[in-house]
Structures are given as C-alpha cells and as structure tokens.
Design goal:
binds zinc ion, about 230 residues, TIM Barrel, eight-stranded parallel β-sheet
C-alpha cells in the first residue's frame, strides 16, 4: 500500500491529543499542517526530494553537505535526537546551508504501539535537542523510525510537523555499493518522488558518492530538487 494512503484520521485521537497538549500548556494543534503522510515533492514535472535519515554523522554528513552545495540541492535531514546531542555543530552546519530539518525521534524507537502522550513527549524531547543546537530552528517534518507510523503522524501534525514518507528507497543501509545505488536511483526515480536515503546509522560513504553521481546525471536531464509538500 502506498505510504500516502496509510492515514487513519481518528477524531477521538485528535481530541485526546488536544487535551494532552492543552494540559501541558506548551503546544496546541496547528491546523495548517496535514496529518497525511506525504511522499510527493513540491512543484510539477521532473521534481524530486532528497531526504536523509539517522544523522547527524560527522564525516558522511559533512561530505554530503559539500556535495549538495556543489549541486545546489536543498534537502531534508531527519535527525536522530541522540545524534543531535552528540554532534550539535554538524546540525548547525546543516541548518546554515539552508536545508530543511525533520524530527526522527530521540532514540530511534519503534513508536507504532505507543499512546499519543508518550509519542508527543519523545517528539518534543527531540525538538528540544535540535533547538539546543540551533535556537529557534524550524522543524518542518517528522519521519517515523522504521516507517512504523502507529499514531505518530497525527501527533507530529499537531506539533506542526508534516509526516514525511517516501516513494523510493534504494536500500542504502545494506550497503550494496555506490554503482548499485546509482543504478537503483536512476531506475527508480519518478516525477514528484520523495527519496529515502541515509547519512547516519553506519558508514554512508557509498550514499554520498551515489548522490554526487546521480545529481550530475539528473541535473543534465533537467530534474529539479525541491522540498516535500507541507500542505495536502
Ligand atoms: Zn531511521
């Protein structure tokens, strides 16, 4: 089933969450952000969104930032809270380069069975870690660890973050070699696709190499790199 279809608007959940958020007095629902899991890039025609999970991861993330800067690509970084606390300076570099920030949970837990209040606490803790690194940072997206959404999409939207899915994953966590990653990316891209990649969680040198090569090829074919949609 496409991820974009896996949404379950549950009124009682919204009410319960609203009460939970109101009780804390620190956040309220922001109706401008859709709780639908987005897997589509902004704009029409040959557009793509590159999204990178599980960082920051100093060596690979910094090299990736150089690659993206050279190709003038703006991407999304879905940050793992513990890694943010370990490497705040790398998060500052990501933000300074103009990339969009996403929340990927504090400890990369599978939250699919968690109640909304527990999810909200984790997502807030992650945002606080990001804002310790980058005061006043805008945190525009949330991606559930393992794509295990449970009730996280509704909670994220209530906290102002668009749930972010993907249309193409290329198994860069295996890792299968840069040549194979390039082949999977070239074969798999479709207009409007959000692409899932990783700059953290292990040695991601192959991912960085593949992005560099694919960006050159796709730009020559007039593909554009945009951010994922925020509103439905
Ligand atoms: Zn992850």
């Amino acid at each position: 089933m496409p991820l974009s279809r896996v949404t379950r608007p549950v009124p009682y959940l919204a009410v319960a969450l609203g009460l939970a958020l109101a009780a804390t007095g620190r956040a309220r629902a922001r109706p401008g952000v859709s709780a639908d899991i987005v897997d589509t890039a902004q704009g029409g025609g040959r557009v793509l969104s590159l999204t990178f999970d599980d960082g920051p991861n100093p060596a690979d993330t910094l090299r990736l930032l150089g690659v993206l800067r050279r190709h003038r690509i703006t991407a999304v970084f879905c940050l793992w809270g513990e890694h943010v606390d370990a490497h705040p300076a790398v998060v500052r570099r990501i933000a300074a380069d103009g990339h969009a920030l996403g929340n990927h949970g504090m400890r990369h837990d599978d939250m699919s069975s968690w109640p909304p209040e527990r999810i909200a606490a984790d997502l807030r803790e992650t945002n606080e870690a990001i804002r310790r690194a980058v005061p006043h940072a805008r945190i525009r997206y949330f991606r559930a660890p393992y794509g295990a959404w449970g009730r996280t999409a509704a909670v994220a939207a209530a906290l102002g973050m668009r749930p972010l899915g993907w249309r193409l994953a290329v198994g860069d966590w295996e890792p299968p070699g840069a040549d194979e990653l390039v082949r999977r990316l070239r074969d798999g891209v479709t207009p409007g696709a959000v692409v899932l990649l990783h700059d953290g969680g292990g040695d991601r040198g192959q991912t960085v190499d593949a992005v560099d090569r694919v960006a050159t090829a796709l730009k020559a074919e007039r593909w554009r790199f945009t951010l994922p949609q925020r509103r439905s």
